[in-house]
Write the C-alpha cells for this entry.
Amino acid sequence: MKLIIDTNNNTLTHITDEDRRTIKLHSKESFALISHQWLKVAWSQKYPYTFTWLGRPIIQIPEDIVRIQEVIYKIKPDVIIETGVAHGGSLILYASLCNSMRNGRVIGVDVEIRPYNLHEIKNHELSSYITLLEGASTDNKIIEKIKSLIKPDETVIVILDSNHSKQNVLDELNLYSKLVTKNSYIIAADGFMKHLYDVPRGKSEWLTDNPVEAILEFVSKNPDFIIKNPERLFNESELNMNITYWTCAFLKRIK
Ligand SMILES: C[S@@+](CC[C@H](N)C(=O)[O-])C[C@H]1O[C@@H](n2cnc3c(N)ncnc32)[C@H](O)[C@@H]1O
C-alpha cells in the first residue's frame, strides 16, 4: 500500500494491489487514511507513552482520554472499574472526573502494582476515590471482591485495559459485562493493535490475537450488548470517526 501526499496539487493518492485512487487532500476520506497511518507511526514512536494526568503517567492518546471523559460525564457512573493500572494515570483521570462530578469512585485491578506506582497512587490528592486490587483480572477472588464493593442499583462502567490477548479480553468481557448496568458501557481498549502487526514495536500475531476478535465473538453471543461508539456531544464537523486506539471498543448494554 502507498499513500502519496501531494501538497502542490492538494491530492492524496492511495495505491493498493487492486486499486489506485486520487482524492482531495483536504477531505474527510483523506483525513481517515492519513490518521490511520499516523496511529501506526505514533505507536512505533511510543507517542502514547508521553502523557500524564495530574502527575501520573497515562498510557493513552489525547483523543481517547477526551472521549472516555465524554462518556463518563454522560453516564455519571457510581463505580468505574478498570483492569490494567500501570502507573495509575487513567485511575487518576477517572478519580478527577468523580471529584468534579461530585459522584463516583474508582476500582483498579492489576496483576502487579509496582511499589513506586502504589506509593504514588496512594499518596495522590485523589487517592480517596480509588480502591486498588492486586491480582489477575480474571481471578475469581478479584471478581468476588469487586462485587462486594458495588451496592445494588449503582451505575457501573468498566474499562478493560490489561492483557490485550483475545483470550484474556474475552474472559474479561464475560466476567465484567455482568457488572455493567443498562445503558452503560464495557470498554475494551486497544483493538487498534490488529493494525500494528507490521510496524516497529508491533507483533505479527496481533493481526489475529487482539481485543477486536474478542469483542466480535462476545457480541455475537451476548445480545444484551452492542458495539456502539458513543454519540458525539459536540460536533460542528462532518467527521464521525474517532482517531483512536480503542477500535470497536465501546460495548453498550442495551438490555
Ligand atoms: C496498558 S497497561 C494499563 C495502562 C493504564 N490503563 C493507563 O491508561 O495508563 C496494562 C497493565 O495491565 C496489567 N496486566 C497485564 N495482565 C494483567 C492481568 N491478567 N490482570 C490484571 N492486570 C494485568 C499490566 O501489569 C499493566 O500494568
